[in-house]
Amino acid sequence: MSLRVLAVASECFPMVKTGGLADVVGALPGALAGEGIGVTTLLPGYPAVLAALQATETARDWPDFFGGPARLLRGQAAGLDLLVLDAPHLFARPGNPYLGPDGRDWADNPIRFAALGAAAATAAEGFDALHAHDWQAGLAGAYLRLNLRGAMPLVFTIHNLAFQGQYPAGLFPRLGLPAAAFTVEGVEYFGEVGFLKSGLFYADRITTVSPTYAAEIRTTQGGMGLDGLLRSRGAMVSGILNGLDTAEWDPAADPHLAARFSAANPAPRAANKAALQARFGLAEQAGAPLFLFVGRLAWQKGIDLVLDALPALLAEGGQLAILGTGDRALEARCLEAAAAHPGRVGTVIGFDEGLARLGYGGADAVLVPSRFEPCGLAQLCALRYGAPPVVARVGGLADTVIDANEAALAAGAATGVQFAPPSAEALAAALHRMAALYRDAPGWARMQRNALQADVSWARSAGRYAALFRSLIHG
User: Fold this and answer.
1) What is the maximal distance between C-alpha atoms in the chain?
2) pLDDT, tens digit (0-9, with 9 covering 90-100), for 7-50
3) Residues of the binding site for ADP-alpha-D-glucose
4) Binding-site residue set
5) Which of 382, 442, 400 is nearest to 239 (CA)?
């Protein structure tokens, strides 16, 4: 590879995953390899990561690293080149990488991810650029610029601005950064330590995961307190869409499906629909439009809008399958909806990758009514598996789904339905539109075929990332 990039992130599929960040971190190295850029990924040494690591060697030892011994391991896992921060006092904890058994954040999360940032700054020696992902890697730039005086190009990618890693000022003396760093021209953020703010301040380029989201976060409404800083960075901020690993997400080869299918032969989807109805306790009705919601049961994701718009869905003869976990009150509402409408609404609380894939391969349409969405992967999976999505017109949802308006229908280009604003009333209207499209069998088949043929791969976006790295490294 002509250029070498060190990526640093807190999770990576398939070793550890809580959301779309892991999918992106796991898929981007393969996509960039085709552009002549080699990526090594630095991860925390969670038990699952260490268990997967092969052909290891120790790259560095620290007798005392943020409160305990640590070492940097080099190896491979799942086809990825990895560096792993093996620090048992920080990461030797099973389960969720951020939450303890009580469901609360680990109290030492700021120290755990400060250590990750410091390790990234040290490990970056010998690479051409450093690529940090989200707040957990936000201090990498501070350690690189202030402790090592490094001029290495730094790209920082925002996957969700809502998660900022903000901690009390009392943390600062434990970070090992110079005192001058605790100012507005550094890591200080409204009197506290801001991990995400640090990443934005020290980066040479800031990317986020869709062009529309890049514009939204530079507004007062969407910037969540950081819009001023983001506006001040001007052209240094850009949006590059996420993609899918289309070999990993392939309905023609997916073992989780009851029947595999393709754009050339979508008929087997009917068997997946029947299997999905059975798994969710829904009536086996081939002609009922089956809608799927899969994801976090949270305000951001708009599951409450789905429940509020449920009468419209049921009035159209539709069925609803809900798969996810999150806010306990919203979980309870989903279970109550299933109990109130047996055979019409089914809810599974939890996350099941195989069931999610069956859902994408069997549902007629996927609901993604997020109030804000940096990029979203659910709608990309839905397109890839031939389930035209119903999406709020925000962030990456607006950038990836072609609304079935009159012009798009006339041109034969529609891949789903968009609605705005993100409200129950607007979603209900979108559900009525989608049901009418479903009843038009030839038109529906055309929209489903468009979805299956949509390019949701990393091809174009990998080229944009490669161009960005080359401009920084050679410029």
Assistant:
1) 68
2) 999 999 999 999 889 999 999 999 999 999 999 999 999 999 99
3) 17
4) 17
5) 400
